[in-house]
Amino acid sequence: MPAKSPVIVDLKFIPEEVEAALAGAFPGREVIDLADPAHQERDLSGIDYAVVWKSAPDLFSRAPDLKVVFSGGAGVDHVLTLPGLPDVPLVRFVDRTLTTRMSEWVVMQCLLHLRQHRAYEALGKKHEWRDLSQPEAADVTVGIMGMGVLGQDAARKLAMMGFKVIGWSRSKRVIEGVETYDAAGLDAFLGRTDFLVGLLPLTPDTRGIFNAALFAKLSRNGPFGAPVFINAGRGGSQVEADILECLDSRCPGRRLARCLRTGAALPGKPLLGHAERLCDAACRRLVRRQGALRACGAPDRALRERAAPGACSG
């Protein structure tokens, strides 16, 4: 019986978390963790499998014989942009906990804004107190752009909380209990949206889609008189300069959640210093990372089923 192929692991997460997640994940296979300096010059030819998240650009030149590439999370855009992408199956993990944690994050943001949490925080810092408007969830329409697995789960949770929920995707989707729009209905969708949630994958069509022109079409008829933008998707889908301009001119509203293109709270980012945005990108990134690690720590079954019809997604 031929020996099992090793598995290349190149995950840009906390090394200790990767090590813990991979313990026992691929029995009988050598796991080549590229975060280990011992593998820095390792010959990766002849290896069939790689589990990756934001790999180095030379991955595919170093590993020219891959038969399957596994994304370490739900997204695959970080793989599609790597030089020398081979013509092999690209598998993305759809893990329950990743979906659940991300949709919980979306619900949390909507509730924080609904209850004027940030405004109360600002008043508290000034040692002031006054009553602020407290509409109920049914007074707010949440529009979700991106109605895949994450978008649909977030829609269900938000509807359960009482929000009116509508959805948009480039192609029309039929989702029970949610009114949906396709590409042709974008303006109508935006005109009804009080809280805009971004859950779009990063593609050439979605890069920079969240810009001033789009924000200008959002509803100003909601209970707060200005819309809220919550980007739970890729940072590359937003134009940061437009977000800053809109915040300063009040065009998209008073609140903003998760708006760094890198997905991390990095020094020098102008959005970090804006007094009216909630910077919890690091928390959101941890949610994604923990879900991805849980998926990557799945048993060897993922490799055994690689050739099964419908087993690959992405």
The biggest sheet, with number of strands, parallel, antiparallel or mixed sense and barrel status, is: 6 strands, parallel
Q: Report low-confidence residues grouped into runs of 5 or more.
A: 252-267, 275-287, 307-314
Number of E strands = 11
- The overall pLDDT average reads 79
For the biggest β-sheet, the strand order reads 8-7-6-9-10-11
Q: What series of H and E elements makes up the topology?
A: EHEEHEHEHHEHEEHEHEHEHH
Number of helices: 11
Distance between the termini: 32 Å
Helix content: 25-40%
Topology at a glance:
Layout: E1 7-11, H1 15-22, E2 31-33, E3 49-53, H2 59-62, E4 68-71, H3 77-80, E5 90-92, H4 96-114, H5 117-125, E6 141-145, H6 149-160, E7 164-168, E8 179-181, H7 186-192, E9 195-198, H8 212-215, E10 228-231, H9 240-249, E11 256-257, H10 281-296, H11 301-304
Parallel strand pairs: 1-2, 1-3, 3-4, 4-5, 6-7, 6-9, 7-8, 9-10, 10-11
Helix pairs in contact: 1-10, 4-6, 4-10
Describe the structure.
With 314 residues, the chain is an alpha/beta fold. Helix content is 31%, strand content 14%. It is built from 11 helices and 11 strands. A 6-stranded parallel beta sheet has the order 8-7-6-9-10-11, with helices on both faces. It has a 5-stranded parallel beta sheet with strand order 2-1-3-4-5, covered by helices on one side. β1, α1 (15-22) and β2 (31-33) form a beta-alpha-beta unit. α1 (15-22) packs parallel to α10, α4 (96-114) crosses α6 (149-160) and α4 (96-114) packs antiparallel against α10 (281-296). The protein is elongated and about 70 Å long. The model is unreliable at 252-267, 275-287 and 307-314 (pLDDT under 50).
